[in-house]
Design a protein that fits this description.
By secondary structure, the chain is an alpha/beta fold. The protein folds into two domains: about 5-230, Rossmann fold (3-Layer(aba) Sandwich), CATH 3.40.50.300; about 255-320, no CATH class. The chain is built from 13 helices and seven strands. It has helices at about 5-20, 30-40, 60-70, 85-95, 105-110, 115-130, 150-155, 190-200, 205-215, 230, 235-280, 290-300, 305-320, and strands at about 45-50, 80, 100, 135-140, 155-165, 170-175, 220-225. It has a seven-stranded mixed sheet with strand order 2-3-4-1-5-6-7, with helices on both faces. α8 packs antiparallel against α9, α11 (about 235-280) runs antiparallel to α12 and α11 packs across α13. The longest helix is centred in the last third of the chain and has 46 residues, at about 235-280. The N and C termini lie far apart (about 65 Å). The relative contact order is 0.11.
């Protein structure tokens, strides 16, 4: 689904009317988009973490920003819902002076997935591609779930939806400290200490307390409020939710197909090894002669299945010794008490 000019105009009109009700707000989402659009025009990238509790409106805030960015925008081309394979890199490479939302980035970008091929590719892309002028949003609930290299290196900005009321959501925008020696470039440790002192003194943190703490840091660029995008462009949010649900269903089916195949292969691999060990008595278990039929019965398989496992084992052996000269001979395996009827 492509965002039409009339959708963008409708959103701009609605936001202007919305902010008229809050004249005391210093910044708006218009300031936010303008700041980063100016940055991209100066041949600088913008990789931004988007954090906040589930249901606070992180994705809708990003969609709103992408629409206001003013460039051609599609819910297919500019959003990855549940990233798979090279999807993030492929979409990024197709964009120039554009925006990209990596929704549910937790699936691949979390610290526990630091070995994933996709995350490594994204890390490299964030470090090396500086002149495509793209604004990339990495949507993940907890900032600490990112790898240390991403928190301290690739991610320069972060947007945090710190709370939501019945009327709006509050977003703060922060920049990582330019001091590359700083062990706490986001001031998270200091903020944590302040929150603990407030909780100890007052018992519970209020929205006003949270905002006061975050505004007090030099790396906080701005904060602003936003309405619920569902109230403005329900056609856009409905399509977004449909595509997201569709991606989850596809991902679920792939997981259901992949898991049994993985366990089936593992089972076959184990049985091949066990069959070879027992039939050829590689463990030197003693001089007791055991037939292949008895071994098959003990393993709970038929004699033909046992033979299939042995063929796989023999194939593996042959593949490992292909480099041996032609005049060399493979070991002559002798079965203990081989039953000629099997």
């Amino acid at each position: 689904m492509k965002i039409r000019p009339k959708d963008r105009h409708k959103l701009i009109y609605y936001l202007n009317e919305f902010y008229k009700k809050y004249p005391y707000e210093k910044y708006t989402i218009f300031h936010f988009v303008k700041y980063f659009k100016r940055r991209l025009k100066n041949n600088k990238d913008a990789w931004m973490a988007v954090n906040g509790d589930t249901g606070t409106g992180k994705s809708y805030m990003v969609l709103m920003s992408q629409i206001l960015f003013g460039r051609p925008f599609s819910l297919v081309d500019n959003v990855t819902y549940i990233p798979k394979g090279n999807e993030i890199i492929d979409k990024f490479n197709n964009l120039n002076f554009q925006t990209l939302l990596i929704d549910e980035a937790a699936k691949e970008m979390r610290a526990v997935n630091w070995q994933s091929k996709q995350q490594q590719m994204v890390n490299v892309k964030a470090m090396t591609d500086r002149f495509k002028n793209n604004w990339v949003f990495l949507n993940i609930p907890n900032f600490n779930e990112f790898t240390k290299s991403m928190r301290l290196g690739n991610i320069i900005f972060r947007a945090i939806v710190i709370y939501r009321t019945d009327l709006y959501a509050r977003v703060i925008i922060q920049r990582k400290s330019r001091n590359w020696r700083d062990e706490d470039p986001w001031n998270d440790k200091i903020a944590n200490d302040r929150y603990k002192k407030m909780e100890k003194k007052y018992g519970e943190l209020t929205n006003e307390m949270i905002l006061k703490v975050e505004r007090g840091f030099p790396n906080t660029l701005m904060d602003f409020i936003i309405p619920n995008l569902e109230l403005v462009l329900p056609n856009v949010t409905n399509e977004y939710q449909r595509l997201k649900l569709e991606s989850r269903e596809v991902d679920k089916k792939q997981m259901e197909l992949t898991k049994p195949d993985r366990y089936r292969k593992l089972y076959s691999k184990i049985m091949t090894r066990v069959s070879k060990l027992l039939v050829y008595n590689e463990l030197n278990l003693g001089k007791v002669q055991v037939s292949k039929r008895e071994i098959a019965d003990a393993l709970g398989v038929s004699s033909s299945t046992l033979n299939d496992y042995l063929k796989k084992a023999q194939t593996n052996i042959v593949s490992k010794v292909e480099h041996i000269p032609k005049d060399s001979k493979l070991p002559n395996f002798k079965l203990l008490g081989e039953d000629n009827n099997d």
